[in-house]
Structures are given as structure tokens and as C-alpha cells.
From TrEMBL:
Residues the entry annotates as binding meso-2,6-diaminopimelate: R382, D406, N407, P408, R409, G456, E460
UniProt-annotated binding residues for ATP: G107, T108, N109, G110, K111, T112, T113
Domain of life from the UniProt record: Bacteria
Mur ligase C-terminal domain span: 333-458
Protein name in the entry: UDP-N-acetylmuramoyl-L-alanyl-D-glutamate--2,6-diaminopimelate ligase
Gene: murE
Length: 485
């Protein structure tokens, strides 16, 4: 594509004279290919403008910037390169989201689970699916690694274009609050936006719950008919969450609600919990239907309701959606059992917020016959104020809490543990900073009928200590500890 043709989508007062061919666009010198347009982004760590020279040296043929940069290539100046990047990426890749049924899922907890449920439902209904989220990007059955839950505009639009080429029909995509604030999904034409729930997390970044909620709200306020005014848009909202009405108010799309306690268009009654999973009666505009999940806990019922409601607004027959959910055996690292023939239960779960930890522990309490060991830590360089709350939850709902490390990153692990300890009065807990040792201790001490919950890292296969990333998988460490008993 010629530079001038690409730049037509920007309201420029002055375009450069030169008109090179643009083969790719990027905001990262580590990904430059000859013929690229390099976009300078002011980031949280560094300023992309300082890499403009390196970009040109590596083959960039034009540079988009917010301020003058002295380079041997045409420079296009715009007031906000992040906003321009969203528009350019959408244009460069041919507006792929117009050709996809794009479902965005936001909320503090349950995004990965709900998006995988939605992906399964659409796939089982015969549609080719795409998935973008914490675990990976998936195009049909092909899995690609991803750094962020919600990638930046360029990676996103490139991925969508690839999906269109591969004949994908529906994409289920997790949309994080960071992505919404940073404009990573600007230019995406969502068809359905789903709200799971809102509770404390990421206050290191958003500072207040109001700001965090406002960030999530952007998915709903921007759910407009940006391309095709006749295409209906839907907001699928959890009616039980206190923040639900805020998102309803933010959107001009059709609102469809789901819930358990408050009146909602899709609701679950007669909820039964067993060790095999949660079952419930679905009440919907199509009447009553029985649903028997293989997933545990009330939170799984919420995720299932969100997925069923989404399927309904996209015209998937309810019976097909229910059948698909009933086949789903589990999501990696979410309430995942580790079994090596031991006579106690070991569960690895990604709960890394006070609310998710409480939900998981309440679910465990429903079937635990004896003691509950909770091995838990809190991430470094992340919300400090959730640490005492998570520690408190671990102590309230388990008999044997063990505080340990979870990706300390650049923080001192003992300082993180001290923040956790500040949240508890009683001395019932143990502090074992080394995560492997903490898991081994819980497993060695557990007796017949006990439950060991290893919380916080779920599917993660690493531990981040300082700048180093070392191999670490709770499931493998637990398995080995059981085998060594
Ligand atoms: C705090 C934060 O959100 N940071 C995100 C942000 O990076 P940044 O602003 O720090 O970028 P930077 O490192 O300062 O670089 C500025 C610019 O210089 C460029 N650069 C930099 C170095 C270089 O050698 N060459 C170069 O060109 C960079 O490509 C960039 O364009 O933009 C990057 C691209 O989109 C993201 O990868 C990065 O996510 C970091 C890795 C991260 O950890 N983010 C977390 C907090 C996050 O976003 N999490 C959410 C999920 C949370 C949840 O829901 O639980 C997510 O969506 O992943
Ligand atoms: N609807 C829910 N309500 C509360 N807690 C939930 C819900 N669904 C899942 N959880 C808990 O939250 C944990 C994380 O779930 P999941 O990975 O689906 O959420 P997420 O929103 O994608 O998280 P992240 O923001 O880190 O990507 C699960 O391991 C479980 O403990
Ligand atoms: N998306 C979340 C994941 C947290 C997982 C936990 N293991 C941690 O490292 O804090 C975050 O980046 O805050
Ligand atoms: Mg996720």
C-alpha cells in the first residue's frame, strides 16, 4: 500500500511529499521489517520517539510521530500517535472486524472462562471461531502465543485479518481494562459486549474503583454502529453485579441481562452443586431448560449464563449452546484438579483477586470434608491494596493458609508477604516465601479427605523473579510433590 493512500484516513494538514510503498506497520523496533511505517508511541516505560533512528536504520521507510524526530525518512506529525495507530491499523489490514462477528468480554473475573465457553458454543454450532485472550490466540485450531490478554492495535488487526483469511466467523475476545484505557481496541467493530463482574483489582494502574469501572465502561459506550448502521449491537450484562446498571447506562446498544438473584432475561434457578459440577434450571425467553455443567461453583453458573445469553443474541439455538456447555470439561488452570492417586484433593486455580479467591474457597467449602490448605501469594508490581484482602480471605475460608510468592517481579518478596500479613489478625497462617516449598509443605501435611488449593497462577508456566522468568508450573510441582510422598 502506498503511504499517501494509507494516510487518507487521518485528518492531516500536511502530508509528506514522498510516497513510498508501506509493507507493514509497527510501533516496535524489535519487529521492524524493511518497508515498514514506524509509529512512535510514548509508553509507560520508555518513549518510542527515541527509537525512530534505529527504526529507519532497520528499514523503516516512514515515521509517524507526535514531535519532530531527525531521521532520514519522511516524518508524519500527528497530535496523538496512539489514536492514529488505531485508525491506521484498521485501514492497513482492510477493516477485518467488519467481516467478523466480534464478541468482547470484559470484567474483573471470568473473562477467560466465558470467552472459552463462547468459543466452544459457536464452534459446536458449526461456525469457524477465533479466540483472543490470556491463554493464547486461537485461529480455528491453530494456537499462537500472546504477551498480553488484549494485544495492541497492530497485533490485533493483523490477527483479525488472518482470521478473515482463514474463514473465521466469530471471535471471542477478552478485553482488559488496560487495553480499553490505552485504546488497544479502538477501531474494533464489536457486535456484542459482555460484562462479567467488577471487584477490586489493578488499582496500581487505575487508582480508584470509579476509574477502573470507567475503563470497563468504554467497551459499552463505544459499542456503536461504527460501520453498518443496520447491524444490531448487544450488551450482555450481569444484573446481579452492583456495577451492572452503570454499563446499561453507558451503552446505546440493545441490553440483555442475565443473573441469579436479580430479575433478568436469562436467569438460573434451582442451582445444585455437587463434586461433579453445578446444575441449574435456565429461565429464558424460550422457557425453562435444565443445564448440567461439569464445572464447579456458583461463579461457573454466572459464566455459563453470560455465554448462553451471548449465543442467544447471535441466533445460536439455545439447545445447541446448552449441549456445548455441558460437554466442556474444564478450562486450563481454572479449578483444575491434580490427581496422582492421593487420598486428598489438590486444586490449581487462577484466583488472584479477593473476590475470585473467596468464590473458589466458598465452592471448596461446599464439598470439603476436612481441612482446607490454601497456598497463595500476590503479584509484585501489581495492586498492593488487594494483598491484605486476599490474605484475609485465605484465613477466613481455609483452616491452613500458607502465604507464598506469586511473580514477585521487581519487588522484594518479603515486602509483599508483609503486605499480606497486615490483613490478618490471627496467627494461624504459615509464611513460606519459596513457592515450591510452600506447595510441598501443603501436600506433605495434607491427610485423607483434606483439600489443597494452590491459587493465583493457574495455567502460568513461569515465575517472574526480578527481570528473570523461570520455569514454574503449579500443576507439575504439585504432581511431583504427590509422587514423592
Ligand atoms: C503497563 C502496560 O499496560 N504496558 C503495556 C504497554 O507498554 P508500555 O507503555 O510500557 O510500552 P513501553 O515499553 O514504554 O514502550 C513504548 C514504545 O516503545 C517501543 N519500543 C520499546 C523498546 C524498544 O526497544 N523498541 C521500541 O520500539 C514499544 O514497542 C512501544 O511502542 O503497551 C504494550 C503494547 O500494547 C503492552 O505489551 C504493555 O503491557 C505490559 C507488558 C503489561 O504487563 N501489561 C499488563 C499490566 C496488562 O496490560 N494486562 C492486561 C490484562 C490484565 C487483566 O485483565 O488482568 C492485558 O491486557 O494484558
Ligand atoms: N464469574 C466469576 N466470578 C468470580 N470469580 C470467577 C468467575 N469466573 C472465574 N472466577 C475465578 O477467577 C479466576 C480467573 O478466572 P478467568 O481466568 O476466567 O478470569 P479473567 O477475567 O480472564 O482473569 P484475568 O483478568 O487475569 O485474565 C478463576 O480461576 C476463578 O477462581
Ligand atoms: N492479568 C493479571 C494476572 C495476574 C496473575 C498473577 N499470577 C500475578 O502475576 O499477579 C495481571 O497481570 O495482573
Ligand atoms: Mg483472562
Amino acid at each position: 500500500m502506498k503511504l499517501h493512500s494509507l494516510l487518507k484516513v487521518l485528518p492531516l494538514t500536511k502530508a509528506p511529499r514522498e510516497n513510498p510503498d508501506i509493507n507493514s506497520i509497527t510501533n516496535d523496533t524489535r519487529k521492524i521489517e524493511p518497508g515498514a511505517l514506524f509509529i512512535c508511541i510514548k509508553g509507560h516505560q520508555t518513549d518510542g520517539h527515541q527509537f525512530a533512528n534505529a527504526a529507519v536504520a532497520k528499514g523503516a521507510v516512514a515515521v509517524l510521530a507526535e514531535k519532530k524526530v531527525a531521521v532520514e525518512a519522511p516524518v508524519i506529525l500527528v497530535p496523538d500517535t496512539k489514536r492514529a495507530m488505531a485508525v491506521l491499523a484498521d485501514e492497513f489490514y482492510g477493516h477485518p472486524t467488519q467481516r467478523l462477528n466480534l464478541i468482547g468480554i470484559t470484567g474483573t473475573n471470568g473473562k477467560t472462562t466465558t470467552s472459552m465457553m463462547i468459543e466452544n458454543i459457536f464452534r459446536d454450532a458449526g461456525k469457524k471461531t477465533g479466540l483472543i485472550g490470556t491463554l493464547h490466540i486461537k485461529i480455528g485450531d491453530e494456537k499462537l502465543e500472546t504477551k498480553n490478554t488484549t494485544p495492541d492495535n497492530i497485533v490485533l488487526q493483523q490477527t483479525f485479518a488472518h482470521m478473515v483469511e482463514e474463514g473465521v466467523h466469530t471471535v471471542a475476545m477478552e478485553v482488559s481494562s488496560h487495553a480499553l484505557i490505552q485504546g488497544r481496541v479502538n477501531g474494533c467493530d464489536f457486535d456484542v459486549a459482555v460484562f462479567t463482574n467488577l471487584s477490586q483489582d489493578h488499582l496500581d494502574y487505575h487508582e480508584t474503583m470509579e476509574e477502573y469501572k470507567r475503563a470497563k465502561g468504554l467497551l459499552f459506550s463505544r459499542l456503536g454502529n461504527i460501520y453498518d448502521r443496520n447491524k444490531p449491537k448487544f450488551a450482555v450484562i450481569n444484573a446481579d453485579d452492583p456495577a451492572g446498571p452503570y454499563f446499561v447506562k453507558e451503552t446505546s446498544a440493545h441490553v440483555v441481562t442475565y443473573g441469579i438473584d436479580q430479575p433478568a432475561e436469562f436467569s438460573a434457578g434451582n442451582i445444585q452443586m455437587s463434586v461433579d459440577g453445578a446444575s441449574f434450571t435456565l429461565h429464558s425467553p424460550e422457557g425453562k431448560q435444565e443445564v448440567k455443567l461439569r464445572l464447579m461453583g456458583k461463579f461457573s453458573v454466572y459464566n455459563a449464563l453470560a455465554a448462553i445469553t451471548t449465543a442467544y443474541v447471535a441466533n445460536i439455538p439455545l439447545q445447541s449452546a446448552i449441549h456445548s456447555l455441558e460437554q466442556l470439561e474444564g478450562i486450563p488452570g481454572r479449578f483444575e484438579a491434580v490427581n496422582a492417586g492421593q487420598d486428598f484433593t489438590v486444586i490449581v486455580d487462577y484466583a488472584h483477586t479477593p473476590d475470585s479467591l473467596e468464590n473458589v474457597l466458598k465452592t471448596i467449602q461446599q464439598f470439603a470434608k476436612k481441612r482446607i490448605f490454601t497456598v497463595v501469594g500476590c503479584g509484585g508490581d501489581r495492586d498492593r491494596t488487594k494483598r491484605p484482602l486476599m490474605a484475609k480471605v485465605a484465613c477466613v475460608y481455609s483452616t491452613n493458609p500458607i502465604f507464598t510468592s506469586d511473580n514477585p517481579r521487581t519487588e522484594d518478596p518479603s515486602a509483599i508477604l508483609a503486605d499480606m500479613e497486615a490483613g490478618v489478625q490471627d496467627q494461624r497462617y504459615k509464611v513460606i516465601p519459596d513457592r515450591k516449598e510452600a506447595i510441598q509443605t501443603a501436600i506433605r501435611e495434607a491427610k485423607q479427605g483434606d483439600v489443597v488449593l494452590i491459587a493465583g497462577k493457574g495455567h502460568e508456566t513461569y515465575q517472574i523473579i526480578g527481570e528473570k522468568v523461570i520455569d514454574f508450573d503449579d500443576r507439575l510441582v504439585a504432581m511431583k510433590a504427590i509422587e514423592e510422598l
